[in-house]
Amino acid sequence: METESDVQAGLWDAELESLLLRVGERFGRVEPRRRMRDYVRGLLGPVGRKNSWQLAEHAGNATPYGLQRLLSWCQWEADEIRDDLQDYVAERLGQPDGVLIIDDTGFLKKGAVSAGVQRQYSGTAGRTENCQIGVFAAYASAKGRALVDRELYLPKSWTEDPDRCRTARIPEDKSFATKPELARAMVRRALDSALPIAWVTADAAYGQEWHFRRMLEEAGVGYVLAVPKSQQVKSPAGGWRIDHVLTGAPAEAWERMSCGNGAKGPRIYDWAATKLPTIEGSDPTHYRWVLARRSLARPEEIAYYLAFAPADVTVSELVRVAGARWAIEECFQAAKNECGLDQYEVRRYVGWYRHITLAMLAHTFLAAMAAHALERGAEETVRAASFPSPWQKSDGSWTLSIPARPGTSHPDTGSTGPAGAATRPEPAIATTSAARTPIG
Asked: Where is this chain compositionally biased, Polar residues type (predicted)?
């Protein structure tokens, strides 16, 4: 007899096969297409450290050379896989109020050969380390969250050294770009994709950048962006530091709200928000806002935000978007722990993009299956609750009715006919488990 676990494993395997067939069309030859499938299945499998050697062993290959060629020399475009990934996320996780989140993460490295590596601050390590920095975009909705784009940050120590770039196979046309400039390019691509994006959020490294905010306003996309306390706020009424604006907020302007759930439950803070003045007589479709988030345990810790939102937006919606920023941290953690995002051993520019893109694809698959499990669990919960309660009240007292079994009759079911007459089925077992099912 087929068990629930067998059914779930079958669903997972069918969905993965469909996804691999979808992206497999980007490979012109059979060999790299087969290697790609081995690589992604290995990233999803029970492999200790997900480098080429151990992924090859998981796939049953005697050497890692085939997978290494996949990342280094085979002809395929990682950006095309990224485009397919964004379409897949739009289909599985997309919702009209979806949020695009921008952040960067570090990849600790030894030596000076890996593309883009140098001693620089890594938020992952919380200090200056020898590392590469990747700027990422994630998509989040009520259905789930997944990484949808990536760019490798190339410091000036690299872009101003043509020989070094040539050795790492960095394209000749690659010039220096700041992290906010990389972020703007990713946001433009996301807005041109099938992803339904209503909002963009990011931390202060991106929120303080005027060009980043201006691009979003010109595109008509709402944002809630963290900024430093020294951020200048300008409006037709004048200009002020954002912390000075919110210092004057009356006590009743602060509201206690949750900005989403964390590992320990709801993230609850005190929030204050106000619209900025507009030109007198104008009737804008969007308004600019300033927000502050105050810690309950340490009231002196206040974070500040600039927002741009439709005229009918509520403060609770702005708070929701601000809280969505943590979703990308969860994506980084899951993609690194589950899919080997940071376990690559490639050094060249092309290899970095290929490994990172395939790891993102594996993580996106897990996110889609978790969303499917939650939806399935909700449907079964509703289905189970739709049966009449066995508690029945008659003549002022309660009676527990016993459901009839198939092939029997019982007066409480209304069935008086012979075996085979209509009877109420046993309730389905409701489940909301999104546990990961192993893939062969």
From this structure: 389-400, 430-440
